Amino acid sequence: MKVKVPIIVGVVIVLLVVGIAAYMLWRPEVKPYTLNIWTGGTGGVYYPLGVKLSEMLNKYAGNVISSSVSTSGASVANMRALGAGDAQLVFVQNDIAYYAYKGIYMFEGSRVELARGVAVLYPEVIQIVVRADSGIKSIYDLAGKRVAIGAVGSGTAVEAELILRAAGVWDKIAVQNLDFAAAADSLKLGLVDAAFVVAGIPTSAVLSLAATVPVSLVEVPDEVLNTLVGQGYRFFTRYTVPAGTYTGMTSDTRTLAVMAMLAVRADVPDDVVYHVLKVMFERIDELREAHARAKDIDLKKALEGMPIPLHPGAIRFYQEKGITIPSELRP
């Protein structure tokens, strides 16, 4: 007896439907990638931005990313966590990311070679704070003075030494290894003449100091920046602090800045990094609700001051946006 063709076709279709249903029922579940974001202290900028970014990733890319946030001691601790695998995405100053990637200064012997760049975010200004009545105007005026450069092993101390050496005054100052909290007290008491602090402006610690003792900032001229860039420290950029930022400041002051940025481990999947950038930049107004510093985050400037090679997922995102990738930023 001949079996009719329609019956055979019907049986095949039923079997296909059953097979597909069985596959959908028994296929292994693809879980979102766990992304631990290291930020900084709860009173800083990194933490609220990190919390907001994590919320956005879980909301808008939850099928790809499951993110969480950790507090930390900020840049140096974050790069160590990245190298150890405790963190997958970190907020960090671009100079610290450079030191970690190169294995120099505080990362000598513990290079974080797998660090990759994601995006440059906003400036962290290098401020050399003096009393307004000190008579110190330019970095060259620091010769013969007592200068607090930051705690031993800190990023601030490294930056201060680089800048002071580029200006030719490093060997002419009395170095004091004080963090800014201690340095502020010393400035009030006249125990130091100048103190370095690196942070977004206005910096709350400087505002507090200026409320008791009028302050001004020391000028860092273009030739110092040019020397630093010529030495390969391309993470330094020019920044002008407006007059009136702090009590005692009567004129704009030219100084330098490093940049806050996002760095990621090289072994994080490309699609994850791509979605981090896609969510962050396509919903940037939502991120800006978290902190005023986020107003400076700009897609067009996301590679300016990038000190380490980009992650392939980041390259894919920027190329889709029509942004040219410099050859030195390709892994």
Would you mind describing this structure in some detail?
The chain has 331 residues and is an alpha/beta fold. It has two domains: 33-122 and 259-329, Periplasmic binding protein-like II (D-Maltodextrin-Binding Protein, domain 2, 3-Layer(aba) Sandwich); 124-258, 3-Layer(aba) Sandwich (D-Maltodextrin-Binding Protein, domain 2), CATH 3.40.190. It is 36% helix and 20% strand. It contains eleven helices and ten strands. Strands 1, 2, 3, 4, 5, 6, 7, 8, 9 and 10 form a ten-stranded mixed β-sheet that branches. The longest helix has 22 residues, at 5-26. The protein is globular. The model is unreliable at 21-27 (pLDDT under 50).
Summed up:
The chain is of the alpha/beta class.
Describe this protein with a few key phrases.
36% helix, D-Maltodextrin-Binding Protein, domain 2, 2 domains, globular, 331 residues, alpha/beta, single chain
Topology, pairings included?
Elements: H1 5-26, E1 33-38, H2 46-60, E2 65-70, H3 75-84, E3 89-93, H4 94-102, E4 115-131, E5 146-148, H5 155-166, E6 174-176, H6 180-189, E7 194-199, H7 204-210, E8 215-217, H8 222-230, E9 237-241, E10 253-265, H9 270-282, H10 284-287, H11 312-320
Parallel strand pairs: 1-2, 1-3, 5-6, 5-7
Antiparallel strand pairs: 3-10, 4-7, 4-8, 4-10, 9-10
Helix pairs in contact: 2-9, 9-11
